[in-house]
Each structure stands twice: as C-alpha cells, then as structure tokens.
Request: fold
Amino acid sequence: MKWAWKIASFAEIQIFVHATFVVIPALVLLETLAGGASLGVALSAVFFVLAVFGCVLLHELGHALMAARYGIGTRRITLLPIGGLAQLERMPEKPRQELAVALAGPVVNVVIAASLFLGMKLAGGFQNVESLSVISSSWTVKLMVANIVLVLFNLLPAFPMDGGRVVRALLAMRMPHRRATRIAASLGQTIAIFLGVVGFFTNWFLMLVAFFVYFAARAELFHVESNPTSSELQSETIVGDSVRTVSTRVTQSPIYSNPKNSVGL
Reply:
C-alpha cells in the first residue's frame, strides 16, 4: 500500500501506518482545543485515540495469528483512519477456518475489555454499570467501553467486516462458497447503505465507513466470482466421452478488512 510507513514488526508481520492516519489525532487535537479545553486535556484525548488504535492493532494481530495456525501468512497490517487492514497471503477456504479467523479479532477486544474491567474491580475503581460515562469516567473506563463498542460494531453482519465473514462462513457450511459470498455481500451492501443514510444525518465518519464497506463487498464478490476456490475447481468437467479433473491453485483476496475498528473517533 502506497503512502504507508513501517513502524514495527511482530512475528514476521510488518506493521504500517498510512499517511492519512495522522488526520484522526490532528482532528481530535484541534476539536478539543477549539472546545476550550487546555492543551493537557487535548493531548490526553489524542493519547486516548492512539490507545484505541493500539487495541485495533491487537485486533488485527488476532486475525493474523489465528490465520497463521492454518498456515496462512500475513504480509502486513496497515492502520488507516477508518481502522485496520490485515493483508493475508490468502483467505481460508474452509468455512470453519474462516469463522475462526473472523472471530479472533473481536475475541481480542473482549479479552482487553474484560481485563480492564477485572483490573478496575480489583482496584476498587469500578462500582456499578450505572456509573459508566464515556464523558466523565476515567481513561480506563473509556478504553473498556471503546473495546466493547469495537466488538459490537465489528460483529455487524456487513461483509467484508468480521460479522459479515462470520455470516459467509456459516452459510458456506451449507452451500457453495460463491453463493454464500453473494448472499453475504448483498447483506453487507444493504447494511452499508443503511449506515450511510444514518451517517448522513449524524456523523460523516460513519458515511466514510459505509462507503468503504459497500465497495469492499462489491470488490470481494467480483474477486470470488472471477476466482472460484480450489475446492470448487476440483470438480469433474465432462467433455464428450472423456472426464477430466480441473485443478488450479487460486489465491483468494488478500485483504482482510475491519473498517469499523475506528469506532468513536
């Protein structure tokens, strides 16, 4: 991906930040200062945003490490203003493997939120759910809530987001992969249109996410239609009186996208 800077590597996975990423902390800083807050408060808001994106990075590493269990490498992880992208060498062809890879990211956020909750309970810093407030609560509470929101938003059945990939994996257990992709992509595009309409009246950032989801779903559907999986190509093709087996190695779409990981920014 162009205009991306390498910032680290982990388990042979290269981690990049896209140039446009700086827009988010810059906007947070300017908007906080414009609201009359002190520089210290504004910087705290920026650090919080970076902490949330740190959780997004861990989310993407969850996908990558689960994929590695099935022998699928990850070329790079790129942080964008709308979230994170884990570029896998290929997508799992077996539905159960895709299900595991899709759920691995949200599970990471569940673990983070649960760890923060338990830490606050043990430290006596959390009393009850009614006391939660994203505005007035502590930094730790806000980060816990942010991870909960990441989980919920990630699991929206909007293909190719995590929830949409879960839907496709479950459908693919009962029908051909391409048909499952058509259904999941149609559902994803419908949800993207809904999010876009809601975003038009509430939040421009939601419109950006909706735009990305809609066209990402269309692109992946086109890829799957053009490149059936090797299991689908391992079919007998009858030509006249002869029967031959077609076997072609196909590399699936390398982009494992999670645009909603930038919730609350």
User: Anything to note?
Assistant: Residues 39-69 form the longest helix (31 residues). Residues 113 and 144 are 5 Å apart (CA to CA).
